[in-house]
Amino acid sequence: MIYLFLADGCEEVEALTTLDLLRRAGLEVRTVSIMGRKNIIGSHKIEILADLVFEELDSSQAEADMLILPGGMPGTTNLAAHEGLAQLIRSQDAKGGYLAAICAAPTVYGEMGLLNGSEATCYPGMESGLKGAVVKEDSVVVSGNYITSRGLGTAIDFGLKLIEILKDPFTANDIAEKIVYRR
User: Fold this and answer.
1) pTM of the predicted model, to two decimals?
2) Residues 6 or more apart in contact with residue 48 via CB below 8 angstroms
3) Would residue 122 show up in a list of annotated catalytic residues for this protein?
4) Is 108 domain-assigned?
5) Which residues lie closer than 8 Å to 57 by C-beta, 6 or more apart?
6) How far is it, in rounded angstroms, from Cα 30 to Cα 4?
7) Cα dist. 170→44, 161, 164 in Å?
């Protein structure tokens, strides 16, 4: 199971592009609101309906294949402030599970002190939040169990890289071709 976490103020395109691509690949993804309600209002006032609220997660989250954080403001700030999500991220990291984030959201991992020695990227100007990381400017950076990306303009690359990791390069290339995207 893959969990994509949503908060008010998230960047809608980053969240939905990633979700769409992963589901096209046949991966099981659940969107999780951390707001105590299923409806989320994104940073551009687009309403998104999450599959479940954080409080509905059960012991199955321990079996998560990947946790994903979309960026956007104040969505990233809201994600960073959620203690339950922080505990889940720490647990995922402790078992070496995949942690993915795009735009400003990689700073959540950096501020938690999890990126020490890892390579990472984020939205330009937010690099100080990647505490302990070796900062890169690539569109997508994979370093150990961390997958980070720069922003809305790299959302397709990010989603396709997640498919490569969770499935295989053939599936990622096939989807890229079907959506008329050159890699």
Assistant:
1) 0.96
2) 6, 10, 12, 15, 16, 31, 39, 40, 41, 42
3) no
4) yes
5) 3, 32, 88
6) 6
7) 34, 11, 8
Written as six digits, the tokens of 134 are 């070796």
Is residue 71 within 8 Å of 103, Cβ to Cβ?
yes
The verdict on residue 139 lying in a domain is yes
Domain with residue 141: its CATH number is 3.40.50.880
**Residues 6 or more apart from 91 whose CB is under 8 A from it?**
62
Residue in this structure with the two tokens 């006032």, named with its chain if needed: 45
- In a domain, residue 183? The reply is no
Range of the domain at 99: 2-178
pLDDT digits (tens, 9 = 90+) for 41-92: 999 999 999 999 999 987 555 579 999 999 999 999 999 999 999 999 999 9
Cα dihedral 113, 116, 118, 119 in deg (nearest 10): 80
Q: Which residues contact 36 (CB under 8 A, 6 or more apart)?
A: 53, 54, 55
Residue among 103, 105, 126, 172 flagged as catalytic:
103
Within a domain: 69: yes
Whole-angstrom distance, CA of residue 147 vs CA of residue 155: 12
Name the domain count of the chain.
1
Q: Which two tokens stand for residue 143?
A: 């370093």
